[in-house]
Structures are given as structure tokens and as C-alpha cells.
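We were asked to recover a plausible sequence for a given structure. The inputs and outputs are reproduced exactly as logged, with field labels preserved.

PROBLEM: sequence recovery
POSITIONS: 346
GIVEN STRUCTURE:
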């Protein structure tokens, strides 16, 4: 179905782009993955994509399985849709991967879908093909779809690889969410998408509901859509290589800077996205009870802004953003270091 406000070539460019990602990584071998233009819905950023997807799948008494630490918009979308959130843990000591048996145990007959964010915000993890396969097998066994938030798709470095979840759509239906906001660094353009990749047709009803919803939802502006085929289908190799090299050096600057601060610990180097999670040993800091205090006092005394982990489900951790010039990151590390030194329990 083609909506009056959706240019045909923007939708087909997204489909072609997604197919090329799946083909490029080579994990769907023997199971050709179909993503046609009719599987793609264009949205106002990934935000509208995730809100539409969750509200279409929602039903009274249902629940979604979300990662913890996570991305707050999923919680909000669940509240709005009137469904329960259940959290599976991303494990810092296991490179922030999840325990598939925990996901399985959390699910029941009312579980609607598993949400997977890869590359991951907030941990910076880029999941291995083995881990993605494990999650797809759980979804197959539970007979539920996977919502794959791949807003950071392609933003990988330091030996990480991006493998689209749709590579495993032969096991379970995958709804892939993406946008121009992060990889092309134009969050203000508000252009995103979701693609329903459903090889055995179990999401027929979901498609029907989606089409009704997308007919009444405002879509992205046609002016932006006109630019999409050029943006997505031109490889722009140099641009992306430069961005990744820059992000990797930013990550390294922050990681090395944090190693010099005793009370802060980052378990593993991020291999994707623009974020890392850092554990705060509050027991060694005077007047700091928890991550919220840490963030507040650090802001007050050093003007360094970090996101308290308790907001995204992990108490006494903070999330740091490293998409900044390296000199600013070094200065932020120096400031965090003097802050911690001043507060350190003798
Ligand atoms: C930024 C972000 C989004 C929202 O993307 P927009 O295209 O800006 O709406 C969704 N999911 C995750 C994990 C994000 O970090």
C-alpha cells in the first residue's frame, strides 16, 4: 500500500538499503530474506516507528520484554499502550549480552514481543551473530516477533560488527526499526522507518492494523523523503569511515581517561553506538549516596552532564555520551577525576 504522503522511491530505497545490509553480513545464507517496499513504513524518526510498532502489537493484559539498562521511550510507549514492561538484564561482565534463559523465563502466553537494541544504547555493545541467533531461537520457541531497534546500525568500530537481526528472520518475524538520525547525524530531519520481515506470514493481522494506523498518523515530510534514495543508496564510504574513525578515537579517549579514576569502572570497551555505561563506587565517595547524587553534584561542581543509570534501570551506574571532540572528552575526564578525588573517602 502506498500512502499519499509517502514517496514510492523513499520506501523502496529503505527496502533496498535493508536488503543490502542483510546480504552484506552473510548470515542469512540458505534463507533468502525478503524485504520488499510493501514491508516498509516511513515514520517521523525512529521514535514514531517504535511507538507505532508497540501500539499495533499491544493488547490488554499483554507484556513486552525490554532490555535493562534500556531506552526510556520504550517504557513510555508501553505505558501509553497500557501494557506491562518486563525486563531482561544486559550483563556487564558478559560484554553486555543477555542470558537467553532469563528472557525465556520472563515470557508467558501474554508476551507480545522481545525488544532488542543493537548496537546498544546505553552499553555500546555490538552483539555477536551467536547472541542474535540465541535470541531469535527464543523468539521462535515462544512464537513471538522481535522488535530490532537498529538506529545505530552500521555504527560499529574497534573490531565490532553490525549484524542485522533480519538475518535471522527465518526463525522468527523481525520488525526492524531505523532512522537517519544517528548514522547520518540529522536527528532534526525526523526521518525513520520500520520494516516487517515475516517469512511465514504470521503477522498478517499486524500488517493490517499497521496500515490503518499509518493512514491516520502523520508521516515524514515529502521534502525530506526526496533526499532519502541518494542518502541511503550512495555508499558514501569516505563519510562513514571518517565518522567511525572519529567515534572510535572519542571512545578510546574517554575509556583511557576513565581508567585513571579509581571509583569509576567501565567493564569493556564499547564497540558501537555513542554511549558507554560506567559503574560508580558510591561507597567510596563522601556525600554521594547513589547515581542521582553523583550526577547532580558532578553537574553542580564541574558542569559535566551524565545520565543517572537509575533512570534507565541500573542503579549506581551512569551513562556517558562520547560523540564529542576528544579535547572536550579529556577535559570532562579531568573534571570527573578531580571531583572524585575531592570526594574520596580517606
Ligand atoms: C535516538 C534513539 C531512538 C530515536 O531515534 P529518532 O530517529 O531520533 O527518533 C530510538 N532508539 C534508540 C535506541 C535511540 O538511541
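RECOVERED SEQUENCE:
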Amino acid at each position: 500500500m502506498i500512502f499519499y504522503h509517502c514517496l514510492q522511491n523513499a520506501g523502496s530505497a529503505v527496502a533496498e538499503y535493508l536488503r543490502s545490509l542483510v546480504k552484506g553480513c552473510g548470515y542469512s545464507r540458505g534463507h533468502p530474506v525478503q524485504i520488499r517496499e510493501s514491508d516498509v513504513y516511513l515514520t517521523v524518526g525512529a521514535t514514531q516507528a517504535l511507538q507505532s510498532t508497540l501500539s499495533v502489537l499491544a493488547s490488554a493484559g499483554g507484556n513486552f520484554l525490554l532490555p535493562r539498562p534500556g531506552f526510556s521511550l520504550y517504557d513510555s510507549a508501553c505505558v501509553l499502550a497500557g501494557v506491562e514492561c518486563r525486563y531482561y538484564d544486559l550483563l556487564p561482565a558478559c560484554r553486555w549480552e543477555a542470558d537467553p534463559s532469563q528472557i525465556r523465563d520472563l515470557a508467558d502466553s501474554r508476551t507480545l514481543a522481545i525488544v532488542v537494541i543493537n548496537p546498544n544504547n546505553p552499553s555500546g555493545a555490538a552483539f555477536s551473530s551467536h547472541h542474535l541467533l540465541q535470541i531469535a531461537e527464543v523468539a521462535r520457541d515462544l512464537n513471538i516477533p522481535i522488535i530490532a531497534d537498529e538506529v545505530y546500525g552500521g555504527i560499529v568500530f574497534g573490531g565490532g560488527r553490525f549484524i542485522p537481526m533480519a538475518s535471522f528472520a527465518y526463525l522468527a518475524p523481525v520488525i526492524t526499526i531505523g532512522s537517519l538520525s544517528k548514522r547520518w547525524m540529522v536527528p532534526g530531519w525526523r526521518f525513520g522507518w520500520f520494516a516487517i520481515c515475516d517469512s511465514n506470514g504470521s503477522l498478517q493481522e499486524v500488517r493490517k492494523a499497521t496500515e490503518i494506523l499509518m493512514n491516520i498518523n502523520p508521516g515524514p515530510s515529502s521534502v525530506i523523503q526526496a533526499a532519502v534514495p541518494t542518502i541511503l543508496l550512495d555508499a558514501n564510504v569516505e563519510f562513514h569511515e571518517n565518522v567511525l574513525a572519529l567515534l572510535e578515537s572519542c571512545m578510546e579517549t574517554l575509556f583511557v581517561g576513565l581508567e585513571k579514576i579509581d571509583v569509576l569502572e567501565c567493564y569493556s570497551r564499547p564497540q558501537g553506538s555513542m554511549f558507554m555505561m560506567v559503574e560508580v563506587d558510591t561507597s567510596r565517595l563522601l556525600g554521594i549516596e547513589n547515581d542521582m547524587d553523583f550526577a547532580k553534584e558532578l553537574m553542580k561542581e564541574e558542569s559535566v552532564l551524565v545520565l543517572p543509570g537509575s533512570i534507565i534501570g541500573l542503579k549506581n551506574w551512569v551513562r556517558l555520551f562520547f560523540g564529542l571532540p576528544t579535547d572536550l572528552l579529556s577535559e570532562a575526564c579531568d573534571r570527573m577525576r578531580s571531583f572524585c578525588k575531592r570526594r574520596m573517602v580517606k
